Structure formats: C-alpha cells, structure tokens
Amino acid sequence: MYNRRDVLRVGAVLGLASASPWLYAAPSTSVADGGLLTRKIPSTGEALPVIGAGTSGSFEVEPGSAAYVQLKAVLAAFFAGGGKVIDTSPNYGGADAILGQLLEEGGWHQQCFIATKIAANSQADAQDQWAGSLRSLRTDKVDLLQIHNLRDWQRQLPYARELKQQGKTRYVGITHYLISGHDEVARIVRSEPLDFVQINYSVNAPQAARELLPLCQDKGIAVLINRTFDDGRLFAKVKQQPLPAWAAEAGVGSWAQLFLKFAISHRAVTAVIPATGRPDRQLDQLKAGHEPLLTQAQQQALIKQFA
Q1: Which domain holds residue 245?
Q2: If residue 122 lies in a helix (H) or strand (E), which one and from where to where?
Q3: Cα–Cα distance between 116 and 143 in angstroms, integer?
Q4: Is residue 4 part of a domain?
Q5: What's the rounded Cα separation, in Å, for the pair 136 and 287?
Q6: Structure pTM?
Q7: Domain total in the chain
Q8: Helix H segments across 141-194?
Q9: Cα separation of 256 and 237, whole Å?
Q10: Which CATH number do you get for residue 49?
C-alpha cells in the first residue's frame, strides 16, 4: 500500500523527469563520458549496458495505481541512466502487459531491449502464448526470446528459432534460476547454438563461475544474470552491517551495488536484471554499472563472507 507521502514523492520524481531534459536523454553506453559499462553480445557484437531490469514481482501491479505511477518513475530513471535490457515473461502475473503499457505511455519502446520467454508444454500453447506476449508488450517483435526454465525446450527452442528466421525476435536463448539446473543448461550449451543464456549467480550462489560461465564465454554466448540478490534474502543477511572496508575504493556505496558489481565483474556476464518498483532503488542499482569492477580478491572475499 502507498500513502499520500509516497504518491507525492513519486510525483516529485516524475515532475523532475518533465522539467529536466537530461532525464530523457538518449542512453549512453560510453565509459568515457560517464555512461554505463557495456558488454557485447558475442553472436553479433551489439553492445548492451551491464545493468538491466527484471519485472517479476515488481511489475505485477494494477494499471493506474500508485504502484503503477511509481513504476513509471522507475522506468524514467532506468532509461535516463543508460539502462536498456528489460526481462519479462508471460507468466509473471501480468507484468508483461504492465511493461508494454508503460513503454507505450513513456515512448520508450525504441530505447528498450525487450527480453521475454516461452513457457509452454505444446506447440499450440506456445503459439497462443507468443501471440499473447506480442499483444501484452504492444509490439510486433522482441529482441530476445528465451525458453523459460528449459520447459519443453526440445520442442520450444526450434520454434523460437523459427520466429527468429521470421524476424519476430533477434536472439534466442534459454533460462534457469536454480543451481540444480546448471548441469542441464551446460549440456544444452554444448550441443545447441544459442545467442543467450540466463542463469542465477550471486555472492552466496557463485557455482556458475566454476564451469557454466566459462563455457558460455568459450561458446560465444551472452549471459543474463538473475537472482543477484537471492530474491532479497541477501539484504536480510547484511541488515545493519557495514560495507567492507574496501567498498569505497571499488566505487560501491550500498550493498545492492556490491551484489550487482560482484556479478558483472565476471567477464562472461553480459548484464544483470534486478527487479525493483522504487525509483530510489533503481537509481542506486544503476550506480553499480560503472568502473571499477571488483578484483578477484574482492570477489573471493565476498564468496567467503556469504558461504
């Protein structure tokens, strides 16, 4: 629930967006002029900002509600700060429809790299779901189409490739969100041509760095990282704890920035996709996408701390 103070604060953020031209400036991907760091998609060389956004949970709101208005401020901050990649799914409780409506209202479709998913158990269901996704997102094509958590991937991955050939998606990939799925993801990476893989990777779940991330790098596959905050559980572990003594020299001012910077410090990672429904948190997360990255010693110290 949002009280009057929350709504007024969001209104102030949106008022700033209207009054300040820089807030709607074209996203910068140049490190030299202070923009977000970028990583190239190996299959094409297209550069993406390392800080993206997710929609699970945070975008499951009612149109026109205070939470919806706040999400408009979140997206204004995201695009003004150089963000581009937004990941969603047709089974995130209507989040894709909210995203589509916000992108249309804000005129942000051209600035957004839309990543969505197929989560179906038959060809007919996949076709119906895909048609629904396009309607929800208010577009006739997306940038990335992923097979959600490897669901029926033997049938759905070829379908995604058909859509790519038709120009309906520019890239195809697979996703998983658990360590238990890494072995199967690795088997698919070894046997199937993919543009993207989306997996979990965090300070308390760093297993992907052992084999899967290097494998994706060797195979020339872009990587999106989910669950960087372990669904929020990491914040409970560091409540009232100070940042490491070396955080300032790493350009880190919050635990959220530190957790995100840990993930993007692995060179195989293309972008992280944390979800938030608050503009202040969105602004904070974007700060993680700037140099310097964490050293190997700093990454290891975090893994040891959260083991």
Answers
A1: 38-305
A2: none
A3: 8
A4: no
A5: 30
A6: 0.89
A7: 1
A8: 153-165, 182-191
A9: 12
A10: 3.20.20.100
Provide the terminal-to-terminal Cα distance of the chain, rounded to the nearest Å. 35
Hey, what are 264's tokens?
Answer: 């993007």
Tell me the C-alpha distance between 72 and 220, whole Å: 35
Q: Whose structure tokens read 């990491």?
A: 234
20: left (phi over 0), alpha (psi -120 to 50) or beta: beta
Token digits of residue 208? 């992907």
Contact 198, 224 (CB under 8 A): yes
Q: In the numeric block, which tokens belong to residue 265?
A: 């410090």
Query: Residue 244, preceding bond cis, omega within 30 degrees?
Result: no
- For residue 252, which amino acid is it? V
Per-residue tens of pLDDT for the chain, all 307 residues: 334 443 444 444 444 433 333 222 223 333 433 489 999 999 999 999 999 999 999 999 999 999 999 999 999 999 999 999 999 999 999 999 999 999 999 999 999 999 999 999 999 999 999 999 999 999 999 999 999 999 999 999 999 999 999 999 999 999 999 999 999 999 999 999 999 999 999 999 999 999 999 999 999 999 999 999 999 999 999 999 999 999 999 999 999 999 999 999 999 999 999 999 999 999 999 999 999 999 999 999 999 999 9
Half-sphere exposure of 173 (CA within 13 A, CB side): 27
CA distance 14 to 106: 11
